[in-house]
Amino acid sequence: MAMILTIAFTQGFQNAIANKIYGFSGHIRVQHFESENTEIAEETPIDMNDTVLSVIKNDPSVESVHAFATKDAILKGPESFEGLKLKGVEPDFSFDHLQEFLTAGRWIHFPDSGYSNEINISVYTANQLKLKTGDKLFTFFIQPDGTKRVRPMVVAGLFKTGIENFDRVNALVDIRLIRRLNGWSSREIGGYEVFIRDYTKADSVSNRIFENLPQKWNSRSITEIYGNLFDWLNLMNNSIVIVIVIMILVAILNLVTCLIILLLERTNMIGLLKSMGSRDGLIQKIFLYHGALITFGGIVLGNIFGLLIYWLQHHYGFIKLPEETYFISTAVVDIGWRPVLWINLGTFTICFAVLLLPSFFIIRKLNPVRAIDFN
Predict the structure, then answer these.
(1) Which of 41-50, 89-98, 215-224, 306-315 bottoms out in mean pLDDT, i.e. has the lowest?
(2) Which residues contact 160 (CB under 8 A, 6 or more apart)?
(3) Looking at residues 18-35, what average pLDDT do you find?
(4) What is the rounded end-to-end Cα distance, in angstroms, of the chain?
């Protein structure tokens, strides 16, 4: 039960945090090499490339691809200012990856011509600026030549990922607004965001795409861009190993103790069987059979209680977490049938193998006469 729940809660937490990051950044980013450091600076404009799009879309693992661009801005509310990085998306951008983060209002609408004056900001930013959906605000842009531009905008909706690094600095706008402010053409973008079907293959898919890209183009997975966050998540795999090892050791000690007690309680029976001509191997099989039954019974009960708690948490979420610390308000569980199968097979095999040692040495060393007189 402990091993199943450890894997379920750890994998659930890892997937929940990873999906928050992927929802806002995609799984892979394809840009020019000089545009890579987009987390601290705006991208260098690049022209849309049909060859690049073809390479990306022809990969069987790719689900969708979207152009994007970012621009730094200062948002002014009724009482204060906040500096943000505005991420511009195209009218055909799919908000399905972000839908779970929308807490109020709606995502921005795109007009047929011109650009949208709507913006999606985080709940954190809205609280700092004292804004709500439908409110108007002024957005200030500092141009490379030092001049200042101001655009009035309307808050279309609020989102909340729970990850402070994202909520404090990100907002969504129409990419055509960023093009207008930067003086870009209608075909200039900051790069492409790629969503794939299985996020665990992001690195391999990114490498595969990179091999087919034209010169000057690069492909990087989000695990590489946000290396610190994913290194932190991967550290949790160590906790899984530690807990599993501890639980196996506890199971082994309990089973060995249980078997020794069984042997001591049946010492007279062992002596009587030996005196009647029973071989040591036959007597050993008897105790191994009972030890295996105890092991199997414990495994069955562990599966029942472990999977029951998993089901209850998955459907009702009764275990809550402080979101400011863990980035999620409810503990998320996630486990497949393969880890459960390996836990069961591994536990039974290891425990059964350990049972051979005490039964082998104790039974073979018992003297039949002394065993019958043992009290």
Answers:
(1) 41-50
(2) 101, 103, 122, 123, 124, 167
(3) 85
(4) 38
* Cα–Cα distance, 3 to 371 (Å, whole number): 40
| Token digits of residue 36 | 């890579």
The answer to whether 100 and 148 are in contact (CB under 8 A) is no
Q: CA 354, 360, 364: angle at the middle one, nearest 5?
A: 165
Percent of the chain with pLDDT over 90: 42
The span from the CA of 46 to the CA of 218, in Å, is 12
**The token pair that represents 182 in the structure block:** 């930067």
Q: Which long-range contacts (CB under 8 A, 24 or more apart) does 98-101 make?
A: 98/23, 98/24, 98/159, 100/23, 101/20, 101/23, 101/159, 101/160, 101/161
Residue 101 CA: distances (Å) to CA of 45, 80, 104, 120: 29, 25, 9, 11
User: At 332, phi and psi to the nearest 5?
Assistant: -100, 135
Which residue intervals of 266-336 are DSSP H helices?
Answer: 267-275, 280-316, 323-326
Distance between CA 64 and CA 307 in Å, rounded?
A: 35
Residue 101 contacts by C-beta under 8 Å, 6 or more apart in sequence?
Answer: 20, 23, 159, 160, 161
Nearest alpha-carbon partner for 168 in 100, 225, 95, 83 = 83
Average pLDDT over residues 53-79: 91
Asked if 118 contacts 51 with a C-beta cutoff of 8 angstroms, the reply is no
| Residue 182 near residue 71, CB atoms below 8 Å | yes
Are 158 and 103 in contact by the 8 Å Cβ rule? The answer is yes
Instruction: Output the 3-class SS for 12-63.
Output: HHHHHHHHHHHHHHCCEEEEEHHHCCCCCCCCCCEECCHHHHHHHHCCCCEE
Q: What are phi and psi of 47, to 5 degrees?
A: -80, 145
Nearest Cα to 221, choosing from 64, 72, 27? 27
Which of 23-27, 119-123, 298-302, 352-356 has the lowest average pLDDT?
352-356
Question: For residue range 78-132, what is the model confidence (pLDDT) as tens digits?
Answer: 888 999 999 999 998 888 888 989 999 999 999 988 899 999 999 999 999 999 9
| d(C-alpha 242, C-alpha 240), whole Å | 6
**Token pair in block for residue 338:** 């393969």
Cα–Cα nearest to 116, from 130, 126, 106, 125? 106
